[in-house]
Specification:
It is a single chain. Helix 2 crosses helix 11. The longest helix has 31 residues. The protein is mainly alpha-helical. The chain has one domain. Keywords: Membrane, Transmembrane, Transmembrane helix.
Length: 300
């Protein structure tokens, strides 16, 4: 049996670099496009906000249900991310609606009402995290690490085959997005740390370092299934730095200020990476991949 240490000592395959790059581009593009679609609807078509949020929930749920009918973990992960994205957008619209009903206003440091609402979901978030930490069948590396270091393990982590990665992937996307949103919003709160406090600086530098470390770990995989799943924490942790730079006024987010030249490049990257993922996952012959011949030859 190949150990993790032995696996790390193996040279990085060019094919793994390809799969990692495409997965990261696809997921980053998906997050950016989700932002700009919400901005356009909220600013230019506010009458569509609630129906759009409802449809995001319905379509997201259907994507997750659809994973039931695919045997490939690649398709399950791909559809799971789309489902998780739809459900998350619906959750944000629910907070926007709640903020309007309750009369929640903007704060002096520019926080949107829905983010002020989200800040106080921290209690529910911690309860869900507590369940995940004590549920030994959960295989998330972060929670497995906490169980071992805090001596919470009573039994072995489940090692059986996962039959459907779709719901897990959707849940991973939702939980990771939720966790880091709450982390940043709590950090921005002037009554707690402040947007330019030491805590936010620590989050910025830690996110930068951890994102690149996790991207390096992604190079151990050369299939779109695991690459897509493990790209979620990479992109969303790196997104912390994007959000913090915008909060500091050092970056104008093109998906918020609608910078179409930049967004056109992002949309093109998303569409092209989606095409490559689709072509790869659609191949019937086992072991085939959408990789150029020179990439295959370089590994031989």
């Amino acid at each position: 049996m190949t150990t993790i240490k032995q696996m790390r000592q193996q040279p990085i395959k060019l094919k793994a670099v390809f799969y990692t790059a495409i997965s990261l581009i696809w997921l980053f593009g998906l997050v950016a496009i989700g932002h700009i679609v919400m901005v356009i609807i909220n600013k230019n078509h506010p009458n569509l906000m609630w129906s759009f949020g409802l449809w995001c929930m319905v379509v997201g749920f259907l994507f997750i249900v659809l994973t039931r009918f695919f045997k490939s973990d690649g398709w399950q992960s791909f559809l799971g991310v789309l489902g998780g994205t739809g459900m998350w957008i619906a959750f944000e619209y629910g907070l926007i609606y709640g903020g309007e009903r309750l009369g929640v206003s903007y704060t002096y440091n520019g926080s949107y009402p829905e983010y002020r609402m989200m800040q106080w979901t921290v209690g529910v978030l911690l309860m869900v995290c507590m369940y995940l930490m004590f549920q030994e069948s959960v295989r998330c590396n972060f929670f497995v690490y906490l169980r071992r270091k805090l001596h919470l393990m009573r039994g072995a982590v489940a090692t059986g085959k996962v039959d459907n990665y779709g719901p897990r992937t959707a849940f991973e996307y939702i939980m990771t997005t939720w966790f880091f949103y709450v982390l940043l919003i709590m950090g921005y709160d002037e009554a707690i740390f402040g947007a330019k406090g030491k805590f936010i600086y620590a989050v910025f530098f830690c996110s930068f370092a951890v994102a690149f470390y996790l991207a390096y770990k992604l190079l151990n995989f050369d299939k779109f299934g695991p690459n897509i799943r493990y790209s979620i924490p990479v992109v969303l942790i790196f997104w912390n730095d994007v959000e913090i730079l915008a909060k500091w006024g050092m970056l104008k987010e093109p998906w918020v200020h609608i910078n179409w030249p930049i967004m056109t490049a992002i949309i093109f990257g998303f569409c092209f990476s989606s095409y490559l993922i689709y072509k790869d996952l659609s191949r019937k012959a086992k072991g085939e991949a959408v990789v150029l011949e020179d990439l295959k030859q370089a590994e031989t």
